Structure formats: C-alpha cells, structure tokens
Amino acid sequence: MDAPVIDLLQLYPRDMNIYGDWGNVLVLRKRLQLRGYEVRLHEYNPGDSFPEQVDLIVGGGGQDSGQNKIQADLLGLGGRLKELADDGVPMLAICGLYQLFGHRFTTHTGEVITGIGLLDAETVGGPTRLIGNTVLESAEFGTVIGYENHSGLTTLGPDLTPFGTVTKGQGNNGQDGTEGARYRHVIASYLHGSLLPKNPAVADYLVRHAAERRYGTFNDVALEVPYEAAARSDAAARPR
C-alpha cells in the first residue's frame, strides 16, 4: 500500500531564508516521515508556477532587499494564499514573510512595502534591532522558545490573536507583550533559530492539520526524540 502523500511548499527560499528557516522545513518533513507519510517538497520563487496541490506552506525571513525582490510576485500570489488559508491550509510565516502577510511594512527610511493583508497587522521599521533569546507562553502550545532578530515593530488588529505572550524578550513591538499572530491554521512569528526544532508541539500542530485537511485523519504516533527536551531547556535558560 502506498504511503499517504503530503505536499509541503517552501515560499521564496532564494530570497527569504536567512535565519535558518530551512530547518523548519526539515523538521516538518522528518516528523511526517516518522509517521509514515511521503513528503513531496516544492519550492516557489518569483516567476515559478504555483503547485496545484499544497497541504502545508512555510516561509522565512529576509532583509528589506529580499522583501523588495519578492513584493510584486507576492502581491500577485496573495489572493491564492488567502484562499488557501481560509480553506484551512496550515502555514508558518517567519519574520520578513510575517511582515508581508500583513497590510504593509513601512521601513525606517519611509519606504512602504505593501503586504497581502492575509493578517490584520502593520509593521514599521524601528530605530534599533530587537535581538535575543525569547520565550512565550501560549494557551495552545505551552512554552514556546526561539530567537528574535528584527527591527520591524508589528501591531496586530483588534481581532487578530497573537501567537503568544512574551515572558522573555521583546516580541512584536517591545510594548504590548505580544509575539506573532494566528489566523485559522496560519502561525506567524519573529522567532527563528530555527523555531520548530525546539518546539515540537508547534510542528505537530502544522503537520496534523495538513494531514487532516487532506485525508480526514492523522497518524498521531507519539515520537520519542530524547534530545528535544534538553534542547528546549538549554535554550530557555540562555540569557537574552
């Protein structure tokens, strides 16, 4: 009997993949494979044909120049991404793509990079970078651990749920205690380093919803990865 297939798409790996975001793709693929799924990995860069079948989408961070390179293409793709999000496709958008999933990113020089409005959020470039190990508390995922490195200050709309509440670090803007954003099965965050190796609960949320959307069920086999707990404990204990 053939293994069930999950189609995993990495958005803009050529221009938006500077913070170890490839590690998120590797974790998702491995955790699916360990549960008996075959993973078809797709890449989408400006000008490529968008795959017909997409079950799970991951996108990473990039410099302002990278955001400029993909802006026009992303705006053209925005309608399709919003349709997929509304249809329940899980997505992980990190840093630069998090910003461009919102309405706009206004850089520190005043340049406006228009986003796709999938998230009700806006970002402005701040005077300093927010850098360091970061810990969040999430009602769904528990303690989430990562590393932030961004100068963009993001404000969420009144009805948009944050990814978590900051207990160590600066989060979305260093002021309101929020980090990241949630919309349906879309998770957006400034946390990288990569995010998913240290946060298996978040990775399993994404793969579970990808499988359930496509097949109606998920082979929810418990995975024993002994070094995960040690990695989380070590990362959480590090100073800012």
TrEMBL record:
Residues the entry annotates as binding substrate: R129
Pfam families: GATase_3
InterPro entries assigned to the protein according to its UniProt record, in alphabetical order: Class_I_gatase-like, CobQ_GATase1, GATase_3, Lipid_II_synth_GatD
Keyword NAD: no
UniProt entry tagged with the keyword Hydrolase: yes
Catalytic activity: beta-D-GlcNAc-(1->4)-Mur2Ac(oyl-L-Ala-gamma-D-Glu-L-Lys-D-Ala-D-Ala)-di-trans,octa-cis-undecaprenyl diphosphate + L-glutamine + ATP + H2O = beta-D-GlcNAc-(1->4)-Mur2Ac(oyl-L-Ala-D-isoglutaminyl-L-Lys-D-Ala-D-Ala)-di-trans,octa-cis-undecaprenyl diphosphate + L-glutamate + ADP + phosphate + H(+); L-glutamine + H2O = L-glutamate + NH4(+)
EC nos: 6.3.5.13, 3.5.1.2
CobB/CobQ-like glutamine amidotransferase domain mapped to chain residues: 11-199
Listed pathway(s): Cell wall biogenesis; peptidoglycan biosynthesis
Active site: C95 (nucleophile), H192
Top-level taxon of origin: Bacteria
Sorted UniProt keywords: Cell shape, Cell wall biogenesis/degradation, Glutamine amidotransferase, Hydrolase, Ligase, Peptidoglycan synthesis
Function noted in UniProt: The lipid II isoglutaminyl synthase complex catalyzes the formation of alpha-D-isoglutamine in the cell wall lipid II stem peptide. The GatD subunit catalyzes the hydrolysis of glutamine to glutamate and ammonia. The resulting ammonia molecule is channeled to the active site of MurT.
Family the entry assigns: Belongs to the CobB/CobQ family. GatD subfamily.
Subunit details: Forms a heterodimer with MurT.
Listed PANTHER family: DETHIOBIOTIN SYNTHETASE, LIPID II ISOGLUTAMINYL SYNTHASE (GLUTAMINE-HYDROLYZING) SUBUNIT GATD
HAMAP family with a match to the protein in the record: Lipid_II_synth_GatD
Name under which the protein is recorded: Lipid II isoglutaminyl synthase (glutamine-hydrolyzing) subunit GatD
Name of encoding gene: gatD
